[in-house]
Write a structure and sequence with these properties.
alpha+beta, Beta-galactosidase, Chain A, domain 5, 6-stranded antiparallel sheet
Length: 575
């Protein structure tokens, strides 16, 4: 059972525990407060690459000197392109990308030893091109030898300067192919364009092998694989998880599409046909690879692009699943990072973005660490709920005051359900009692808590961020201190909230079962989520105590007697 399934189960159980007893014992209300093909496997990343500072994101570093070209048998050489954000390796044999490092993000994959995130798997290539000619022949550029311009070991694109271009030209049998890659500093995107002459390419279709799945850069690769999928955007963004593809199974996606991408938990590569007057992608195909575990983590993703006038053009995004980076590019590219289940996404997504923006504002404008920001945000939520808690308290007090009358009515009309319902509704109306008045303050924090669950599951800003003894707010507490503290705070909050409430099966269940259940449930959730929930509970205890004391003063009839010779007599005295 994964984290999302556990969360669904928790929500359902909590709702059952809250509402079913209220229907059974209505008079006793507790106050609760997406890379296809292959490349030479000898093309490896530079082991001397300067790793970024631990944590995420890290400060921008000046472009590094390029390593010497590494000749490889029959596979050309690698030309390196460095921007402040990306370090890309282009193989002159085929013109594809054989290395894509995100220099601002640290890899946590076992064995990477603080290297930058690498999106291309070993032995794979990104952006392989093939041409399907009108006659039906397929021409692959994999075995074409390209001459780079500039003919240098590498190309550096410094920050604050204009775009630079890497041009690759190849000739064969009177045919000529040109590939141009244009890079913009300070962005995770680059432009790709090409011209084809001498192949009778009028009306041809370009096949772009986009991915066989990104290389995992996470400590928990299995959890990362659960998020692998292909995302397409026609009228709206739609995702198909790799886990749904069986080995060898072919999934067809009918276009036209503005963009097609492949995502992991925190990173994203996509091809975008966004220019006005240019053709869009006609469609895409995903083929599941052989399973290496419980689910498919690799899938060949190929998309089609019409070639017009012997040329083609599109853009590429290779970077983090950061909604601010994606939203700046427009065309709903930020929808590649969905929040919540599809049915509830219209509710969860706005709340998630709202919460994320608040935490980003506190961190960037007020220079508050994300951990303290989560604590302050939890306190702020409880402060905003104070008026509702007051109303819930007043409703609870009135409910306790009429409890004897409700009990008497239930006994009198126990054989006449319709009359019993009418009489109880009359009592509620006359005494201004809302039997569900205490539920709203309990339910309102849940959309925020669920939204934060998806924020930690999808948002890269917390990835690798330490706080106190916690090495990573996006991962579970290795010592289980925070979830245990959360459970204890939940027990304390419930215990204080039951002061002055007549004991009944619902209150006992809420008091003992729920803290244990929630602690076990939250053990493997993000430590940042546990931190927020624990802070919210702890801050609520003084509020709940004040409410409880007022309940005792204004509703003495609900106060349990210190000594009750028998349950019957105690019940009579409370009545």
């Amino acid at each position: 059972m994964n984290d999302r399934q556990r969360l669904v189960l928790a929500v359902l159980l909590i709702l059952l525990i809250w509402f079913v007893p209220m229907l059974i014992w209505p008079s006793k209300r507790p106050a609760v407060g997406r890379l296809g093909g292959s490349a030479d496997s000898s093309v490896v990343r530079d082991s001397s690459a300067r790793a970024p500072t631990p944590g995420q994101p890290v400060a921008a570093a000046p472009p590094r000197a390029q390593p010497p070209n590494r000749p490889t048998a029959d596979t050309g050489r690698v030309v390196w392109v460095s921007t402040p954000l990306l370090r890309l390796g282009f193989n002159t044999h085929g013109g594809s990308v054989v290395s894509a490092e995100l220099t601002q993000y640290q890899s946590f994959a076992p064995g990477d030893s603080a290297k930058p995130v690498q999106l291309v798997s070993a032995g794979s290539a990104f952006l392989r091109h093939r041409l399907v000619l009108p006659a039906g022949d397929t021409v692959s550029l994999d075995d074409w030898s390209f001459q780079p311009t500039p003919d240098a070991p590498g190309l550096v694109v410094p920050a604050g300067q204009g775009q630079k271009t890497l041009r690759l030209d190849a000739d064969r049998g009177g045919s000529h192919v040109t590939l141009e890659y244009r890079f913009v500093p300070d962005e995770y995107r680059f432009d790709v364009s090409g011209t084809v002459t001498g192949l009778g390419s009028g009306g041809a279709v370009l096949l772009i092998d986009l991915a066989d799945g990104l290389r995992s850069a996470e400590k928990d690769s299995l959890d990362d694989y659960r998020h692998y999928g292909v995302v397409t955007k026609a009228s709206k963004a739609e995702r198909t998880d790799f886990a749904k593809l069986k080995p060898g199974e072919r999934e067809l996606f009918d276009g036209p599409f503005e963009w097609v991408g492949v995502k992991s938990k925190y990173f994203f590569t996509a091809a975008l046909a966004l220019e006005e007057g240019r053709p869009t992608f006609g469609g895409a195909i995903a083929v599941g690879r052989v399973r290496t575990g419980k689910m498919v983590s690799r899938a060949d993703v190929t998309l089609t692009l019409p070639v017009q006038g012997g040329g083609f053009r599109y853009q590429v995004y290779a970077g983090p699943l950061d909604y601010r980076q994606l939203s700046r590019m427009g065309h709903d590219l930020d929808d590649a990072n969905p929040y919540g289940w599809s049915l509830f996404r219209p509710i969860i997504r706005p709340v998630s973005l709202f919460v994320t923006n608040i935490l980003l504002w506190m961190h960037e404008r007020l220079h508050i660490a994300y951990g303290w920001g989560l604590i302050l945000f939890g306190i702020m939520i409880r402060l905003l709920l104070w008026p509702l808690n007051q109303k819930a308290m007043e409703s609870g007090i009135r409910m306790q005051a009429v409890a004897p009358l409700l009990k008497e009515t239930q006994d009198k009309y126990k054989n006449d359900p319709e009359r019993l319902q009418r009489e109880m509704l009359r009592i509620y109306k006359e005494h201004n009692v809302n039997p569900f008045g205490g539920c709203l303050p309990m339910l309102i924090p849940w959309p925020v808590l669920i939204a934060l669950f998806f924020v930690f599951a999808n948002t890269i800003i917390f990835r690798g961020v330490p706080f106190l003894w916690l090495p990573d707010l996006s991962r579970p507490d290795p010592y289980y201190i925070i979830p245990i503290l959360m459970g204890l705070s939940m027990f304390g909050l419930s215990r204080v909230g039951q002061i002055g409430v007549p004991p009944n099966p619902q209150t006992k269940t809420m008091l003992y079962f729920m803290p244990v259940f929630m602690t076990v449930l939250f053990l493997n959730f993000a430590s940042g989520l546990n931190l927020y929930y624990a802070a919210q509970n702890i801050f609520s205890i003084p509020q709940q105590y004040r409410i409880a004391k007022k309940r005792l003063r204004q509703a003495p009839v609900a106060r349990p007697l210190p000594l009750t010779p028998s349950p019957r007599r105690g019940e009579g005295e409370r009545g």
